[in-house]
Amino acid sequence: MPSQRQLFLQHIAQTSDAPLMLEIERAEGLYLYSPDGKRYTDLISGISVSNLGHCHPKVVAAVQEQAAQYMHLMVYGEYVYSPQVALANLLTQHLPPSLNNVYFVNSGAEATEGALKLAKRFTGRAEMVSFHNAYHGSTHGALSMMGSEFFKRHYRPLLPQVRHLTYNNFDHLSQITTQTACVIAEPVQAEAGVLLPQNNFLTALQQRCTETGALLILDEIQTGYGRTGTLFAFEQWGIVPDVLLLAKGMGGGLPLGAFIARQEVMAVFKNNPVLGHITTFGGNAVSCAASLATLKVLLQENYLHQVKQKEQLFRQLLVHPAIKQVRSFGLLMAVAFDSFAFTKQVIDHCITNGVITDWFLFADNCLRIAPPLIITHQQITEACAVILNAIEAVAAHYHP
Q: Domains along the chain?
């Protein structure tokens, strides 16, 4: 009889030759548990997904209650059902007035795809702009906007008329013109290793989009739902996008994303052609119920206000000669070392000792830290001790 690990290797598609092969039986709060009872501290939240930790009681209760009523219905704007309506209503109450119309989808990549179509349809333009070292998903349209040739060169041809600029380069903004349908940007470049906008770059970017009539799409798929200390990161720079992308932490652990714009913009999907964008499962009732419960917890409890304090505790503790830099914005952090080889050994050592970390797609010399927002000060202290021990162990035997 094949073992579960053997069946995994035979029948589950892998994306590397060396999968972690962690077998997880259950999860609760900050922790994952293997079948033999080993406990892992989750410092990456399933890549910024489990913002309230795993199996938050209020999210679980919402899922169970909704699943007992109904699960899948036709979702794209024909049936009126309460999980979608309640979520969209609460969400837009906490967004600027211009972001008042929500299109629910399955994932961040699908949110990107929908927003790109929306921008082309609304503006009547074809050119699209993104940034080097940007990540917006792996489907073909999203891949076209990705700012790394390494990950997309073998999938060409991709979308035409895509231009990539350098983040924080003000001179490049002149390349946004009246031919540009949209500019898509992360307020914080996550997979680049947590690169922040400098010198009011986002304000200048919004001004250039306004001047040229291009739509500004902000990708808050990783930074939304509280990860940076506010519900949405863009609030901290005093700007408002034309289109907002959400996913990951939005679903409370279930698949859900959204692109949000003003009603006038979203209305272009109604005709020429009718059904201008459709989805089978986006806005699924159970996912929306989980998302609504997640949003209510974030709004009612004190997790958002604790993010910056917890960020500072991580930064105070993570000090070592081998650490070249710590970049962070809320509980999205990159701990930089000399090389990927060093970083990977630290990651492996941490996992062996019960702390799950990772690296970044475009900054593989950096250790990813993006824990559930519910992490306590004691848990931060314990996790950082494991990380520092790992760094010390690797540094003692590392030869570049």
A: 4-55+302-397 (3.90.1150.10), 57-300 (3.40.640.10)
